[in-house]
Structure formats: C-alpha cells, structure tokens
Design brief:
Radius of gyration: 18 Å
Shape: globular
CATH architecture: 3-Layer(aba) Sandwich
Largest sheet: 9 strands, mixed
Number of strands: 11
Strand content: 15-25%
Number of domains: 1
CATH topology: Rossmann fold
Structural class: alpha/beta
Length: 269
C-alpha cells in the first residue's frame, strides 16, 4: 500500500496558500495580447479598493511584472529564511527578475528547472495574509501554467485575455480547453485592444475588429468581463512603471468595471 506523504515543500506551499483568500491566474493562448498589462492593472485596481494583493510573475524566462510596476531595480531580501516580496504601493510582487544578477541575459532552462523555480517562489515567500494572489502566466499551456495548476490545487479561477481578431481567438480557445482539462473554473474573458481611443476626441476606431472576445464568450457561455480600448497612455504607463489606472481615466473606468465583475463572480461561487 502506497501512502501519499506530503513533502516539506508541499507543506510550506499549503501553509502559505492557506493565508490567501482568492488565488486567480491570468493567461492567454498567445503572446502579444497585453496579458501582463491586464494583470498589473487588475492588481492595482483591486488594491485601490482596499484589498490586500500579491502578484506572482510566473513567466520564468520572460518576467515583465517588475518593469510595469516600476520596481525592476529593487533587490529581494529575506527574513527567517523566507523571501520578502517587493512592494509597489501596497501591491506585493515576486518575480524571477528580482533574483537575476544580470537581467540582460536569457534564462535558458528546461521544464523541470522552471517548475522547481515556481515551487520555490510559492514555498519560500512570506506573502502574509492576502485577499488575492494574482498569478501572471506566460502564453500557452505548457510547463509554467501546468505547474501552477498542479501546485495551487485550490485555484479559484482563470481570467483569459484575448484581442479581437480571429488568430487570437483561436489560441484563446486552447486556453479555455486547458482550463477545462485541468478542472479550473474560468472567471471570464477580457478583450484587450478592442478599439483605438483617440486621445483628442475620444472617438473609438475598431482597428482589428469589433466584439470578437464578447462573441467568443457568448458562444461558449462564458462570463465576458469587459473590453479595454487601445489607449496610448496604457502602453506608456507600462513603460514607465506606473499602472495606467493610476493616471488615465479611460483605463481606470475599464478596469474598475472588470474588477467589479470578477468580484461578483468569485463572491457568488
């Protein structure tokens, strides 16, 4: 008879996660959808509402969360053998970026190394008590997403980010399938870059197409969380390390509505 004995690492992860109310992951089927921008601004919008937020950058080989929060030059510290998250405002952040001595060099790791690193980030970090841990996943459905799903066994759900055009929607359908196969509920779909908002007059021009994400969500009977227009200020805010919801009204309004739907969905479960 084989006993299911938890490792010390598993026990540490379980203890850490027990102090976090909601654990959600943000993913997309392909790169270039603005998924990390969405993660950063959802986290900031929730923090502005008074929630205690942690962000785990699970993109081991291409971490961008620190840059978008403006903390890429900060150094990780430890206390009582635990990593102390870097803070941007009141948002706690952990990323492989903080552990690299030369951030210009590529991380060339096979799957097992990436999985080990993610488990260490979950087991050796003192997140404290959080309302939300938001995990920013790399594109696709391979090592990192699968590792997070298998490690955070009580993941409350996934937020899927797409752009309006068909090539993005095709890949997003794979993300939806990934969630179904791994038995993780989908909180909803977000359509990013849904139209270009003129910075002068506010008129929206649909550069790609209109309502692709919304129609996709309706076809699959999934919750549509909202659209985010193409606004130059959102891109600029990411480059200077300041979430757009702090300085741009269009971004703030879009993400506030999305956050309200996320809260409604989670609280109704």
């Amino acid at each position: 008879m084989q006993l299911n004995v938890k490792s010390e690492e598993d026990k540490k992860i379980e203890e850490t996660l027990s102090k976090i109310k909601y654990k959600i992951a943000v993913l997309s089927g392909k790169g270039g959808t603005g998924k990390t921008t969405v993660t950063v601004n959802i986290a900031q919008a929730l923090s502005d509402k008074g929630y205690k937020i942690g962000v785990l950058d699970a993109d081991v080989t291409g971490p961008n969360i620190p840059l978008m929060f403006g903390v890429e030059d900060d150094q990780i510290t430890t206390k009582d053998n635990k990593i102390i998250p870097i803070e941007s405002g009141k948002v706690k952040i952990v990323s492989m970026e903080f552990l690299l001595q030369d951030k210009s060099k590529a991380i060339i790791w096979r799957g097992p190394m990436k999985i080990k690193a993610l488990k260490q980030l979950l087991s050796e970090v003192n997140w404290g008590e959080l309302d939300f841990l938001i995990v920013d996943l790399p594109p696709g459905s391979s090592d990192e997403p699968l590792s997070i799903v298998q490690t955070i066994k009580d993941l409350d759900g996934m937020v899927v980010v797409t752009t309006p055009q068909n090539v993005s929607l095709l890949d997003v359908s794979k993300s939806v399938n990934f969630a179904e196969v791994t038995n993780v509920p989908i909180i909803g779909i977000i359509e990013n870059m849904s139209g270009f908002a003129c910075p002068h007059c506010g008129e929206v021009t649909n550069i790609f197409k209109k309502d692709g994400g919304k129609n996709f969500a309706e076809q699959l009977s999934l919750n549509f969380l909202g659209s985010i227009p193409l606004v130059s200020a959102i891109c600029e805010a990411g480059d200077i390390g300041k979430p757009a919801v702090l300085s741009n009204e269009i971004a703030k309004d879009s993400f506030d509505k999305i956050v309200e739907k996320i809260l409604t969905k989670l609280e109704s479960e």
